[in-house]
Amino acid sequence: MQQESGALSFRERAGYGLGDTASNFFFQTFNIFLLYYYTDVFGIPAAAVGTMFFVSKLWDALNDPLMGALSDRTQTRFGKFRPYLLWMAVPYGVMGYLMFAGPQFDDTGRLIYAWVTYTLMMMLYTAINVPYSALMGVMSPLSSERTVLSSFRFVGAFGGGLLISMLVRPMVQYFGVEDEAQGFRITMALFAVVSIALFWVTFATTRERVESTTEEHDTIRRDLKLLLRNRPWLVLCVAGVLTLSSVALKGAVTLYYFKYYVLDDGSAYFWIFDRTTFFLTMNSLALIIGVCCTKWLSDRFEKKFLMIVLSLGSAACAAGLFFVPPDQYWSMLLVSCAGAVLSGPTAPLVWAMYGDVADYGEWKFRRRTTGLIFSASMFAQKFGLTIGAGLSGWLLAAFGYVANAPQSEDSLLGIRLLFTVIPAAIALLNVLVLMFYSLSDTQVASIERELALRNSA
């Protein structure tokens, strides 16, 4: 194995970050708007959507380790992971558009169309995002540099989320006028073009430096066994399930919370924004502010300590929202943005920790499986999305939700719980799991030095 040391250029860091901007043109749209689109625009029952989300995401999550093992074994002149950004960008963008094409089928036809396009899109998301995530682990051998790179990644990710928060509702209203389906169709076509272009920029501006060889006895089965013996990864795996379950639940019901509890009618409230769009926009800005604090925080505190403290703070803010009355919009915004600032650094921190876990695995087992580690981590997170997305549809139905109608007291209570208390409870479980993470920053630095000596020899 040959490695090059030193910090990456701003161009390469920014280019890598734009890859997650590309991802979030669809990921964040799915997280916030997809359940609403399927129930209130495309006309599919909430329980049926919940089942589709659960089954499709479960199938998709199972594909992640296979994609990671495949990319670990890919050998091209561009490297192991970068080529997939080039190859998969167009299919990814096209399928993302087709999900919102909204053909005029009957009830059964719409459900089948949603199943097919959603499942294929999630598979393509795996095919491009597993290599993209693993790319961070081979751009630099330094943990400190990966933390910086992870910060750039999530500035790009939350920047994409900011654009989604700001633009989707105004664009849907502008392009659709009185036809929401038409508005979504044109909006997602534009997002598809931008997403493809950004993935190609990431491909062109990045480089793989940490190389490894795959020997004949390095089978996928053996790699999986080594992964399951990597205890720090196992902790992060469970934490990933819980984190994304919380995110998926809250994200999926945000529009319902404002439409039926806050009673936002979509009229302009602040400049061109309605209250929902302004709320989403300010929370996205708060997340970016939190991400920008990551380097300053990680230079002063252990990653594990930061993850626990920040997660506790964001959970407290989420639970506090339950007690804010619907007419107290600015209090609602303030509490939510405080939680978003606290949540911001956790995303780059945990992905930097995955890079540390990859180093630990190479140090302990003398076999580097970057693609598998990152893909298996994505499997855990997608399984969390599976749980959260499935529960959001099922619980809405269980509480008596009826699309485009005044909600009962039980339904409103369910929407409020899904937006506040339940995500907070899951976040607290995540804190308990993180306490078992055993890889300290001091140990990571020692592992870096030993690997550098071993590889130079």
TrEMBL record:
<dbReference type="InterPro" id="IPR001927">
    <property type="entry name" value="Na/Gal_symport"/>
</dbReference>
<protein>
    <submittedName>
        <fullName>MFS transporter</fullName>
    </submittedName>
</protein>
<feature type="transmembrane region" description="Helical">
    <location>
        <begin position="372"/>
        <end position="397"/>
    </location>
</feature>
<feature type="transmembrane region" description="Helical">
    <location>
        <begin position="112"/>
        <end position="132"/>
    </location>
</feature>
<feature type="transmembrane region" description="Helical">
    <location>
        <begin position="184"/>
        <end position="203"/>
    </location>
</feature>
<feature type="transmembrane region" description="Helical">
    <location>
        <begin position="152"/>
        <end position="172"/>
    </location>
</feature>
<dbReference type="InterPro" id="IPR036259">
    <property type="entry name" value="MFS_trans_sf"/>
</dbReference>
<feature type="transmembrane region" description="Helical">
    <location>
        <begin position="278"/>
        <end position="298"/>
    </location>
</feature>
<dbReference type="Pfam" id="PF13347">
    <property type="entry name" value="MFS_2"/>
</dbReference>
<feature type="transmembrane region" description="Helical">
    <location>
        <begin position="83"/>
        <end position="100"/>
    </location>
</feature>
<feature type="transmembrane region" description="Helical">
    <location>
        <begin position="330"/>
        <end position="351"/>
    </location>
</feature>
<feature type="transmembrane region" description="Helical">
    <location>
        <begin position="305"/>
        <end position="324"/>
    </location>
</feature>
<dbReference type="InterPro" id="IPR039672">
    <property type="entry name" value="MFS_2"/>
</dbReference>
<keyword id="KW-0472">Membrane</keyword>
<comment type="similarity">
    <text>Belongs to the sodium:galactoside symporter (TC 2.A.2) family.</text>
</comment>
<keyword id="KW-0812">Transmembrane</keyword>
<keyword id="KW-1133">Transmembrane helix</keyword>
<feature type="transmembrane region" description="Helical">
    <location>
        <begin position="233"/>
        <end position="258"/>
    </location>
</feature>
<feature type="transmembrane region" description="Helical">
    <location>
        <begin position="417"/>
        <end position="439"/>
    </location>
</feature>
